[in-house]
Amino acid sequence: MNFEMLVFYVLSTILLFAGFRVVTARHPVQAALFLVLAFFTGAGLWLLLEAEFLAITLVLVYIGAVMVLFLFVVMMLNLNIEKMRAGFWGNLPLAAFVGILMAFEMVLVLTVGGRSVGASPQPHGPGYSNTKELGRLIYTDYVYAFEIAAVVLLVAIVAAIAITLRRRTGTKHQDPAMQVRVKRDDRVRLVSMPAEKEL
Q1: What phi and psi values does residue 158 have, to the nearest 5 degrees?
Q2: Helix (H, G, I), strand (E, B), or coil: what is residue 126?
Q3: pLDDT digits (tens, 9 = 90+) for 83-92
Q4: Which of 62, 95, 131, 186 would you call most buried, defined as having the most Cβ atoms within 10 angstroms of its Cβ?
């Protein structure tokens, strides 16, 4: 077993552990941290496969989107932010562990990516682009799987919108249709009052 295979097994083990902890973590902050770790480890696996475009996309889009989504969920669920801030130092060991693990993964990937350990992948032609190859595979060999994934994501978007648009009791809201249908007589009432007489 060469060093590249060893790095693959290490990253795969971390990815499985992080995915398991995303599901089993009780605190949403810890679940989000483990999800970031899972995405980061997945990006390392993509780099091992020489798919740099997918790795960068995973880091830039998914890790950034997950943190924005997590903040959005915190706002929607009306969590007690002060209570979460009070437990900041309690989450510090986990955050430090995840940060050290990410740094260790980066060192492994850069070491293997630099080919300083003697790995010899198959050389590509002068005009090779893994982004172009990815697009060709998605829209030829895996077009049905790609379309099914798009439909599943569309259903998830519609379900998320339906959940957020549910009627909540005790909230004030405006009805635009009622505002458009309003007439002058509904808003303004002329009252005839006798003139005041001076004493």
Answers
A1: -65, -40
A2: coil
A3: 656 666 777 7
A4: 62
